[in-house]
Records
---
Amino acid sequence: MSSLYYEIALSKVFHVGPINARLLISYCGNAEAVFKEKKSKLLKIPGIGKATIDQINLESVLEATEKEIEFVDKNQLKTFFFLNEDYPSRLKNYADTPIILYYKGTVDLNFPRMIAIVGTRNISEYGKQVTCKLIKEINSAQVVVVSGLAYGVDTEAHRQCLLENIPTIGVLGHGLDKTYPSGNRKLAEKMTSNGGLLTQFGIRTVPDRENFPLRNKVIAALSDVTLVVESRIKGGSIITAEFANDYNKDVFAVPGRVNDELSEGCNHLIKNNKANIFSSTDDLLEFMQWKQNKKELFASKKSELVFDLEPDENAVVSVLHNNNKIHIDYLHKCLTFTPGLLASLLLNLEFKGVVKELPGKFYILNS
């Protein structure tokens, strides 16, 4: 059996989520070893209880795994396991992101610039105007737009991207054997030609309510910045914004009238300093340092990485390149350096003009 077989099988074991799966593999070495290890040894792994270990049975997930692999092969899907080099780099740094992803599409999941555009399913005319105007204005910045393929803001964002020829990725709360909502089937099909569909869920997964917060987590982690167009005080887009904050990602929200329920969530995020005010596309691009021409961007980054930096400095720059703005505590989590060495490296990079420190111990690559 291939390594993919065991990786998919592990993702299907009941009670073994991303955190436990990573823990098991860190002790056993790989997914196949997890299934072949004696239960007595698995019980010695700190944080893994008997109830979880009792579920680790290849026979119980045999049929589902075989069906999944058959579907992957038939539809020529790409799979990404968290230990593989091609697993999306923005998701690698978090312990709670999926251990495996299924993807149908053309755009690189490590594209340099990615923005999540999310919001209510009950989009207003104002929300449509803002989304449409934003999509047209970010075209020159050469970004990929990420959303959830739901009705409302998600649908409007995906649809406008197709009209403007901007790559767009839909992150799903179910398997790739279906489209939810069904009314977006044609839209989803078109997206695979200039963008893609991404999910952590296997086939036969029903789009249940509990799946969508997990979907929103991927949207937030996969994107450099999340923009909430419209939202009630509670909803999926607010959850996405909360995840983005947890992941030290930038968040913007479109302000609205104080008596408008569809703007209540956005106003709440801004009021509680969980989102920047979205006043214009130009301000957002300036904030994200996305005004630079794409060719100039790659040329300058390449020059910095190849000619001026030591290996340890390169490691710091690589993390910043994938995350745009990042807090020093998160940098420390991503790298194996001691706090003292990391501080020294950042200081050297500042002297070289490669890195810039922002208030609150945040760091960005200098433009």
---
Amino acid sequence: MEFGTTEGESGDLEWMFESASSPTALVLCHPHPLYGGSMLDGVLETATRVAASRSISSIRFNFRGVGASTGAFDHGVGEVSDLANIVKEFEARFERLILSGYSFGANVVLSFAAQASDDRDLVLIAPPTQDALPDLKTKVDVIVGDNDPISSTKVLSDWTQAGTNRTLHVIDDADHFLGAYGSDVVDVLERVLVK
């Protein structure tokens, strides 16, 4: 495990990097900073373990104002810039980056992909559905629990069906907090994360 910082628009962004043998890396964005979200989140830890089992490197980082990352919460706006800086830091090291996020982090990934017209593959874990989801052309895998009050399976089903390269993976009985369904999350990620 390697620890470091990258310069962002509001100062240093703290990250953790776990290297593996393939030319692919998974960038992971954490849940809402104001509700305890950080790069140490359990769902992100699970994704990191699955990535390692697939020889995929992983990059976790703290958004501005979290942990040792400087700055303050910016309601998902500045956090898109934070992700952009992490992508810029690591993209030269790999042939392929997969962008992923859980909850708030998934929304940041969606906003980044829409704003940057980015064509990297996305893995979205429980993306909130209160706001309209962007129309993306890239490959997207969405993971959600069927009892999630924040991430509507109906909205996500409609959105995935409206795109040609989008797949919805529903975990039975799970709500927004997927910790108790770790093995189910692992099962889906093992199918989704390929070198």
---
Amino acid sequence: MTDVVNCAISDGIAIFTLNRPEKLNAINFEVIETLLALLDTIERDPEVNAVIVTGAGRAFSAGADIAEFSTVVAQGTVTALREFVRRGQRLTARLENYPKPIIAAVNGLAFGGGCEITEAMHLAVASEHASFAKPEINLGFPPPFGGTQRLPRLVGRKRGLELLLTGDPISAETAQSIGLVNRVVPHAELLDAAKGLARRIMEKSPLAVAATLGAVTRGLNVSIDEGLAIEAMHFGLVAPTEDIREGISAFLAKRPARFIGR
């Protein structure tokens, strides 16, 4: 347990809860460093095979802590880039490239940096009460945690630019329709839905899951030919494992597979 992010582990799933409800779970330096440390710990834990991230209170995250950010900006460009931008980008890159599936359970507003961490996570389930926005433009700067790059890749250039240039909020239903989240569920069912999705993935070979995540994440940012080479490389990593032999044997024998992760 920590003050700004709570971590609870049950049945192979780690649930990270952003825990600054009085600040609408705004992302400050402590939140970033705590999340990075928790991700390192969970990656090394063989008993945990999926992560869910949600927020305490009525918000998922209102974005970066502007009060803290303003003190960094006042120190000049070099400091702002080093202490704020690169730190936030390190978090979103870590989420995007994580070898275990990460699901955002968006319980309320996800603005600015809260939207950016949602974009970076592999999957997202949203409460019917959730809303999303890119309001940085109203403060005089572009999204600094990867939002100008990931959002257009997720929803398309024109849709992405409209959100980035207007700062207008969108509903959970609109977020689903444009591909920002996978599904929208009743608020009371949010965590159960996220856990159900995690459990479905956890039935698969953890080696195959990690290989799929790696191939998709890296392949999205290169040409199709390079992407196919990345895909082949990840297949090569699982080809000699017991899991692939078990999966094929189970299929041929018409029985459930029993994956062991090696």
